[in-house]
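INFO  loader      accepted 1 record
INFO  loader      residues=717
INFO  predictor   begin
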Amino acid sequence: MTTAHKASPAPSRSDISAMVSLLNMGRFGEAELQTRVQLGSHPESGMLWKILGVALLRQGKDALLALRKAAELLPQDAEAHANLGAALYDQDQWSQALESLQRALALNPNDAGTLLNAANSAKALGRLTEAVVLYQRALNIEPAFPEAHNNLGNVQLERGEFREAAESYRRALQLKPQDATIHCNLGLALRELGELEAAERSTHQAMLLDPTLSVAYNNLGLIRVAQGRREEAVIHYRRALQLNPKYVQALNNVGTALNDLGARREAAAAHAQAISIEPGRAESHCNLGNVLIEMRRFEDAVVSFERALALRPDLAPAHLSLAAALRQLGRAAEAEASCRAALAIDPNSAAALSVLGELRADRGQFAEAEVLFERAMSLDPGFPFPYFSIAGHRKMSRDDTRWLSGTQALFDKPLTLRHQISLRYALGKYFDDIEQYDEAFGQYRQANELTQRYGVKYDPAAIVERNAGISSRFTPAALADWRSRGDGADRPIFIVGMPRSGTTLMEQILASHPAVFGAGELPFWQTAFGAFEAKGAALIPTMARDYLGGLAGLSASAQRVIDKMPQNFVNLGLIHAALPNAKIIHMQRHPIDTCLSIYFHYFSHLHPYANDLSHLAHYYQQYVRLMEHWRAVLPAETLLEIPYESLIEDQEAWTRRALDFLGLPFDPRCLDFHQTDRVVITFSKWQVRQKISSSSVGRWRHYLDYVGPLRQLEGAL
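INFO  predictor   done
INFO  writer      dumping tokens
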């Protein structure tokens, strides 16, 4: 008969010493094997679990089970709790890690390594003040602790204490002068302090010590951005990504730089890749939304900003960018609420005040808007947006010396391409207003030349081919067939023409009528035309239904709703096929005045013909030819053409004629259109709040020496 062997509570001291010796000799596999054998006889030995945990850790194996068991069996062993805390930190279980490390510190408050790990955990949890205290405690015990100096610098950097961070990094480098990461961190702090040359030296030293350090290339990219050298920055960010393809911060940085350079598609792809790698990073969603705004994909941008805010409700830039997107969608009340949310987080945000100013200006509240712009300029004199806005919302005068000196001083800073362009347009507007026309044209020319750097090229042959295809497809016979599939609603009014031809003025006049709602520029038919080209006339009933549904969402009660997208002159055939009873008003203005006004406004990359006078002339000629086609194929009762100059000369006569064309009675409020309270977000929002003036008629004659390529357009209408 045999008896069961009873396990003894603890292994012998000699056995423990032997296994510890194996650890000290780096023979971790043997230590693991012998410890497991011993645990068969001593399963409740905390020391054995502790040794096993360390052996597993040193081999890169999962040690949490062993370390938890050790901490449970050795509740008074500070080292057991410290080991568990360090392992939990490595697995990003920061809250549990800090709890274990605090237990260790309660037993042994003067262990510098445990203090360091606890501080690291507190930092990871965002408890920065607590982390600083713990790092400082570690350094009081062990002043020659380079990791503590470096990590303290990281917290100080995150808290915006850049000078203190630089000093911490310097102390770390005195102890570890060959540490590439610390040199890199010092470069970050110096860049934030504006000491760009010193920052570059530190970053290059990091690269010399470790050519594979991806963060150093990322940091050099940030320095190049601060120097205004974004093309070089992109090169460095891409080098960082070659070394670490999943480097999310570098993806966001390269995306932002590409967006600033006008490479919008590449920028969007970079931010989308960052999101795919780390979907929970709010900044990546916000960055993608900012690119989508530049691409005028406002609905998609709103989705991105809402995702960012779901992850980080306190992210002020996301609230602000959401406000900008909502404003473009005509959702003014929601835009203001988002602006207010941004200001609640950052009351001194010059950007938020500027967007709030634009919302005021959209409603014609220009005095209130300027107060906000002035406040933004006072808070941040280096922020360009309010300077551009002020110039666009009133007539400038020679008394605007503070504005002029502030605007000119901005060019001493490393401005983004967008800001360089906007300020050149603003200066052009200023000099035009004070009748210094040579200087004005010089500024406008620089603005347009800078805009060409976005890389969006005008293709004259493609426009000719497009228009020829439209003319051949939208014949009288085809339109007669297709409009039988459309909807007979007469609610929509379309105002079309070249940009800057008076479309906003006409909308403002008609929208002052109580039966009319002005919906602004709706992008529906640009998208619809692409779908029509792909799938044909079978889509016409769906297009009509969807469009009318969209109008109902904008105004449920108005008898007529205006869609003032000027570029719809391209889509008139499809519009008539889908909505054969819709009325179309075509605004015409002197060709050179029209083209010059386009040249004098910042249309970004959206109108590639707009930045070269020869291209403008070509595009205008193609527009004229396409309108000739529509006159020939559309029923005469659907199209009214209004010369801008005639409207200016006799507003009442042409207003009555337009209302009669629409089947509406005359209303005197249309003559006082400048007093109508409604949102207008086009370039003309200031002009349409003024009484009719002939000052813009024949404006091109001030620029006779410069409009050479446009002279061929005289008499083009």
